[in-house]
Write a structure and sequence with these properties.
One of its GO terms (cellular component) is extracellular region. Keywords: Carbohydrate metabolism, Hydrolase, Polysaccharide degradation, Signal. It catalyses: Random endo-hydrolysis of N-acetyl-beta-D-glucosaminide (1->4)-beta-linkages in chitin and chitodextrins. It comes from Paenibacillus glucanolyticus. By secondary structure, the protein is an alpha/beta fold. It has helices at residues 2-32, 186-202, 226-236, 265-281, 321-327, 347-355, 406-416, 430-433, 444-454; strands spanning 45-46, 51-54, 57-61, 65-66, 79-84, 118-123, 143-149, 176-177, 180-181, 205-211, 240-244, 287-292, 333-336, 362-367, 422-426. Strands 6-7-10-11-12-13-14-15 form an eight-stranded parallel beta barrel, surrounded by six helices. The chain has a three-stranded antiparallel sheet with strand order 2-3-5, with no helix packed on it. It has a two-stranded antiparallel ribbon with strand order 1-4. Strand 10 (205-211), helix 3 and strand 11 form a beta-alpha-beta unit. Helix 3 (226-236) packs across helix 4 (265-281) and helix 7 packs parallel to helix 9. The longest helix has 31 residues, at 2-32. The protein is globular and about 75 Å long.
Length: 471
């Protein structure tokens, strides 16, 4: 019995030893791998609240980010250091890496198939960064274009220098004043990015609008730097870049479609191509839109848009033709400036001229009066008896005022446009930063609500832009 007991004890001890040494490596591996959060990835997209591990620490994203290395963005940067990893940090689902080609928006806000856009340009002058809140921007507005950024900006990634001298934006927090240039504080920089992130989280994407009239009349576009623009866009957390190239020195030869060219075709083509290449090389997940001039696709010999076959022309007719026709695949959508043309300009013809050479979404533009030029006044409703698709491209310079109203343009896009064509508004703060619209004219709220209800935009069509004080 003693012999049997010794044998039994030996057998049991052997079994215990095998179990201990086979299980011990698992315990050891768990002790060495304390980080339960997913490892940070340079190609992944992170939203506010995502937690990752990097260099033995846990990090929480304060807002949308991609490619910014945890531990390098500083106290005011996107990554908050939660301290050394420990098994108690709540694990989260890892973010999904976006596809590399073609570039798409982050998975937090995918576009809806066949959905229409309503783009509103938000001028930054006489405006505060604290105006860009979900309470002040109706949720049926799908895109807010921050206007305007300098084409030749010297912005450096991680600097958060969003002031006018560097970025070009004219918010009061960073405006050029008679007493000098104001600079964004770290808190203001953070607040602006958080406001953009909050808009995006609820469904309104912000774009940087580069150029505009003021930044297009000098040599700014010749110094266009795609890298700096993408750096600025990423640091602000916007969804895309809008190119508002309004160079007035381009002249066109009025040739046939094959021979048609303008003197500055190379400049605008180079801008779009360099931006497109920069975004793709960095997998930056930014879209590209352009502000299409009203008559920018006119004056091609042998087409319905040849001079004399359209209602109204301009010295700049055709200046967007080559970039749209030859580089349209690099452009996600066009915001058509179908205004500022005077009483003979027909916005429907402007739309059709772009539609003839571009298959992507086109957003028909409306400008709240008073307009910058031309003297037209945008009305809400059409006059009795107006036929929305009557009297177009007939070779006669007939007065087209009766067709420049929200009702006619919406009916035209709904019945004659593509399923994903939408509208654009200049501008979100028009009556605040300029003078009120004339009595009886359409305003920011009446125009937007009409578009929302009749094109069935997502969101609450009863929401309004509040009357904000002038700054």
């Amino acid at each position: 019995m003693n012999s049997m007991s010794r044998t039994m004890r030996g057998f049991i001890l052997g079994i215990v030893a095998v179990l201990v040494f086979s299980v011990f490596p698992v315990f050891k591996a768990q002790a060495a791998e304390a980080c339960t959060e997913p490892a940070w990835s340079s190609s992944a997209v992170y939203g506010g609240g995502n937690i990752v591990s990097h260099n033995g620490h846990a990090w929480k994203a304060k807002w949308w980010t991609q490619g910014e290395v945890p531990g390098t963005t500083g106290q005011w940067g996107v990554w908050e250091d939660l301290g050394a990893c420990n098994p108690g940090t709540p694990p989260v689902d890892p973010p999904v890496d976006p596809p590399v080609d073609p570039p798409v928006d982050p998975p937090v806000d995918p576009p809806l198939p066949g959905s229409r856009m309503y783009v509103a340009y938000a001028s930054s002058w006489n405006t505060s960064i604290y105006d860009l809140t979900t309470a002040n921007v109706p949720n049926y507005i799908t895109h807010v274009n921050l206007a305007f950024v300098r084409p030749d900006t010297t912005y450096a990634k991680g600097s958060y220098a969003f002031d006018q001298a560097v970025a070009g934006l004219e918010f009061v927090e960073g405006a050029t004043t008679p007493n000098g240039q104001r600079k964004f504080t770290s808190q203001q920089s953070l607040d602006l990015r958080n406001n953009i992130a909050a808009l995006r989280a609820r469904g309104t994407k912000a774009f940087l609008s580069v150029g505009g009239w003021s930044y297009s009349q000098g040599s700014q576009w010749s110094g266009f730097n795609a890298k700096n623009i993408v750096d600025l866009a990423q640091d602000l957390g916007v969804a895309g870049v809008d190119i508002d190239w309004e160079s007035s020195g381009s002249s066109c030869n009025k040739g046939t479609a094959a021979q048609f060219s303008c003197s500055k075709d190379g400049e605008i083509a180079g801008i779009i191509t360099s931006l497109y290449n920069e975004i793709n090389a960095r997998n930056a997940n930014l879209q590209i839109s352009i502000a299409g001039w009203s008559t920018g696709a006119y004056y091609v010999k042998g087409t319905p848009f040849e001079e004399g076959k359209v209602q109204w022309g301009s010295p700049f007719g055709g200046t967007m033709y080559r970039v749209v026709k030859d580089h349209g695949s690099k452009i996600n959508f066009i915001n058509l400036m179908s205004y500022d043309g005077g009483i003979y300009y027909d916005p429907r013809e402007g739309y059709e001229s772009y539609k003839a050479i571009y298959n992507g979404p086109i957003n028909m533009g409306m400008q709240i009066a008073p307009e910058g030029s031309g003297g037209a006044v945008l009305q809400l409703n059409a006059a009795p008896g107006t036929v929305y698709d009557a009297e177009m491209m007939n070779g006669q310079n007939n007065i087209a005022t009766q067709y420049y109203n929200v009702e006619t343009m919406v009916n035209y896009i709904k019945n004659k446009g593509k399923a994903n064509d939408g509208f654009m508004l200049w501008q979100l703060w028009k009556q605040r930063v300029h003078q009120p619209a004339p009595s009886g004219a359409a305003n920011e709220n009446s125009a937007g609500q009409y578009v929302c209800r009749n094109l069935q935009l997502p969101g609450d069509c009863n929401q309004t832009i509040p009357s904000l004080p002038k700054l």
